[in-house]
């Protein structure tokens, strides 16, 4: 880092700039000195580069929430000298170790004078800094501008979508059918008053749900809203309405989006944000009521919360005629008579507190809450359900800590449920050198442990009946080559769904990236997952057999010029269960993106060819969509996939998007099954979206 680089950089609309910067000077200068309006014109491009690898780990609604956070900070960058840990954690691509190192640097060295000083912080490599720059700034101390102090910022988004072909559920069937119309509708409104207050409203109608009729006579099937106040005396946060809670490592209490195992090995160590207003369209993972975070002392905060809401549930009658709970529905769909029958049938009262201590490099926390359900939980006769929760009352307690010692970040959480058992998670992340970082995590979740609101690291989703060891490694081999890999070994001491006895497995993933310059990037990745499953189904005694799935991916990105970018991928998948012959599938696609910096219009399209013998060998791939409508496409069967997205700025405040997407299955007489069945070999969809910022 002792050498300097001197260069002449030309940004559109700017004069040539001479720079002499240590280390990463050339790369950082390009971003720093280009006008912000140009960077903001590339909103969708910048967000895609960060979120494309996350699509398989998040629902569409949760991924939309993450992209909305990035969009907000693109327009309103965080001041690095005045930001809080909770705010910086919302830039989810930063690791826990990087966040800790950043605030340690500020505490020991004082405020930053320039964003280029990020180079001096351990763990902030060129990739991280390049990603971070559009979302942050460093401002000088300026006198308050009272003319702007009371001015808020609003954003209104309207989205419409539907399938063009008629599905079986919309025909006049004698039995089950969809009661509503095929349109999907979304309305979102948000208001931010500096960093003092925020208002959010979300309204959604899924395809097949009624609109101003049937069970939705008031309009949208799902409506969510919140009011948040910040920095009101000792009250750091006050949230009324819908909110989420994220503490520790997600073992005891975590709602909303969360990382799991994936390409970003550093994401396995969670970054909790405590109490925050809920802005997602996901209809399950939130609380409804009120929460406050109060500063007891300079380093100690107390968060109290209470929630009262009705969950969708399937009820059965007991022998004495009382209602019993057989299953909770998390889909949020209310399209048929049966789905509407389950709507809001389970009342839940949840209340609790979290006490957190934060000073220097140490975070400590205690979380305790109690859940009271309207009806009793019951278990079925299946072996894997033997240790499921029964009754109405459930209490959860969690203790967690994070501590940074030199270049090592330690994290751990212990959770206990009453009734139930204990779950333990502990790990460490280390920057072994400027080029190498590593992480290791151990977990032991007893089969009796119960937590309905958890997002802890693991192979399963319940933080119960699992033991495992996870380790990951990230190496910047050279300025052009990057290697990341992780391995996870897991054991299930008791039966699970479709596994009638104790089982085990492992997952290995490796990815190497080559980026010789700004215009070209290539990657090669391989994933092998070995587990066990029942040999068949429906038998009283069912032996388990080996199950293996492998994926190999080659991908290339080429920027032809300032307007056009090409991306293509070829992926192979292999699936085998027991001694049955393995099945092989493939996906090939070509993307073309048109994003001129100075134009009002942008567009992208994809043409894909895929073949998988069954749904077992399906392939997931990120798909561009209208802004915040992104997700992971499922490629299964044999066919062709295409889509075309168009975006146009009508004015500085008003922007509109359009999308057409279609699957074509040659030789097939129908697609889908059940009420989703379509006559013919094509399934196509349109979307329209409008966003107004004022």
- The tally of strands reads 34
What's the shape? globular
Radius of gyration, in Å, reads 26 Å
The overall pLDDT average reads 86
Q: pLDDT under 50 segments (min length 5)? A: 1-41, 143-147
What portion of the residues fall into strands of 2 or more residues? over 45%
Instruction: Count helical runs.
Output: 8
Overview of the structural elements:
Helices cover about 10% and strands about 50% of the residues. It contains eight helices and 34 strands. The strands form five sheets. The chain has a 26-stranded mixed beta sheet that branches. The protein has a two-stranded antiparallel sheet with strand order 1-2. The radius of gyration is 26 Å and the shape is globular. The two termini are about 45 Å apart. Residues about 1-40 and about 145 have low confidence and may be disordered.
Task: Supply database-style keywords.
49% strand; globular; disordered N terminus; 10% helix; two-stranded antiparallel ribbon; 694 residues; 26-stranded mixed beta sheet
Short description:
The chain has 694 residues and is mostly beta strands. It is globular, with a radius of gyration of 26 Å.
Topology of helices and strands:
Layout: E1 4-9, E2 17-22, H1 25-33, H2 36-41, H3 43-51, H4 60-75, E3 78-79, H5 85-89, H6 96-109, H7 126-132, E4 136-137, E5 153-163, E6 184-193, E7 197-205, E8 222-232, E9 235-246, E10 274-277, E11 287-297, E12 300-317, E13 323-329, H8 337-341, E14 346-359, E15 362-377, E16 391-405, E17 408-418, E18 422-431, E19 436-445, E20 466-476, E21 481-492, E22 503-517, E23 520-534, E24 544-559, E25 564-577, E26 583-594, E27 601-611, E28 619-623, E29 631-635, E30 638-649, E31 654-664, E32 670-671, E33 678-679, E34 682-693
Parallel strand pairs: 3-4, 13-15
Antiparallel strand pairs: 1-2, 5-6, 5-34, 6-7, 7-8, 8-9, 9-10, 9-11, 11-12, 12-13, 12-14, 14-15, 15-16, 16-17, 17-18, 18-19, 19-20, 20-21, 21-22, 22-23, 23-24, 24-25, 25-26, 26-27, 27-30, 28-29, 30-31, 31-34, 32-33
């Amino acid at each position: 880092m002792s050498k300097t680089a001197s260069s002449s950089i030309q940004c559109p609309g700017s004069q040539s700039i001479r720079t002499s910067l240590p280390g990463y000077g050339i790369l950082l200068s390009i971003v720093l000195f280009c006008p912000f309006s140009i960077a903001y014109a590339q909103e969708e491009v910048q967000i895609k580069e960060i979120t494309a690898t996350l699509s398989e780990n998040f629902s569409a609604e949760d991924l939309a929430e993450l992209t909305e956070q990035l969009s907000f900070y693109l327009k309103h960058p965080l001041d690095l000298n005045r930001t809080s840990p909770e705010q910086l954690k919302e830039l989810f691509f930063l690791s826990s170790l990087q966040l800790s190192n950043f605030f340690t640097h500020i505490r020991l060295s004082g405020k930053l004078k320039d964003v280029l000083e990020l180079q001096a912080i351990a763990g902030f490599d060129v990739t991280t800094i390049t990603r971070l720059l559009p979302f942050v700034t460093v401002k000088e101390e300026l006198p308050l501008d009272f003319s702007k102090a009371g001015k808020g910022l609003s954003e209104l988004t309207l989205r419409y979508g539907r399938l063009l072909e008629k599905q079986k559920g919309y025909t006049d069937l004698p039995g089950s059918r969809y009661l509503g119309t095929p349109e999907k509708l979304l309305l979102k409104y948000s208001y931010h008053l500096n960093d003092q207050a925020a208002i959010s409203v979300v309204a959604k109608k899924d395809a097949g749900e009624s609109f101003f009729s049937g069970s939705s006579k008031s309009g949208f099937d799902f409506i969510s809203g919140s009011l948040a106040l910040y920095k009101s005396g000792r009250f750091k946060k006050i949230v009324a309405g819908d909110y989420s809670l994220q503490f520790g490592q997600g073992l005891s209490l975590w709602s909303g989006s969360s990382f799991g195992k994936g390409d970003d090995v550093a994401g396995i160590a969670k970054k909790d944000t405590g109490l925050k207003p809920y802005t997602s369209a996901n209809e399950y993972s939130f609380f409804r009521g009120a929460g406050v975070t109060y500063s007891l002392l300079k380093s100690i905060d107390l968060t109290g919360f209470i929630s009262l809401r009705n969950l969708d549930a399937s009820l059965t009658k007991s022998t004495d005629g009382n209602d019993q709970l057989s299953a909770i529905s998390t889909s949020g769909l209310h399209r048929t008579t049966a789905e509407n029958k389950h709507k809001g049938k389970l009342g839940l009262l949840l209340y609790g507190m979290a006490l957190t201590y934060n000073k220097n490099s140490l975070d400590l926390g205690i979380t305790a809450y109690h859940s009271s359900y309207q009806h009793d939980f019951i278990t079925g006769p299946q072996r894997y359900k033997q240790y499921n929760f029964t009754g109405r009352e459930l209490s959860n307690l969690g203790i967690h800590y994070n501590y940074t010692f030199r270049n090592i970040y330690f994290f751990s959480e212990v959770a206990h449920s009453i009734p139930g058992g204990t779950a333990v998670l502990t790990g460490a992340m280390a920057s072994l050198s400027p080029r190498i970082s590593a992480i290791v995590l151990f977990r032991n979740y007893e089969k009796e442990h119960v937590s309905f609101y958890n997002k802890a690291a693991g192979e399963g989703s319940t933080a119960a009946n699992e033991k495992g060891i996870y380790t990951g490694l990230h190496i910047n081999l050279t300025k052009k080559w990057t290697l990341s890999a992780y391995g996870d070994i897991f054991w299930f001491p008791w039966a699970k769904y479709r596994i009638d006895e104790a089982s085990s497995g492992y997952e290995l993933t490796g990815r190497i990236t080559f980026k010789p310059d700004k215009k070209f990037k290539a990657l090669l990745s391989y994933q092998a997952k070995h587990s066990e499953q029942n040999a068949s189904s429906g038998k009283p005694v069912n032996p388990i057999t080996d199950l293996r799935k492998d994926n190999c991916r080659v991908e290339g990105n080429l920027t032809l010029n300032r307007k056009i970018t090409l991306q293509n991928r070829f992926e192979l998948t292999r699936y085998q269960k027991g001694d049955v012959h393995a099945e092989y599938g493939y996906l090939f696609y070509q993307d073309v993106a048109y994003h001129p910096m100075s134009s009002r219009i942008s567009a992208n399209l994809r043409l894909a060819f895929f073949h998988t013998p069954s749904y077992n060998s399906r392939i997931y791939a990120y798909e561009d969509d209208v802004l915040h409508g992104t997700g992971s496409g499922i490629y299964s069967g044999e066919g062709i996939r295409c889509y075309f997205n168009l975006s146009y700025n009508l004015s500085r405040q008003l922007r509109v998007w359009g999308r057409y997407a279609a699957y074509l299955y040659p030789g097939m007489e129908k697609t889908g099954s059940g009420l989703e069945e379509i006559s013919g070999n094509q399934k196509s969809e349109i979307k329209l979206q409008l966003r107004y910022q004022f």
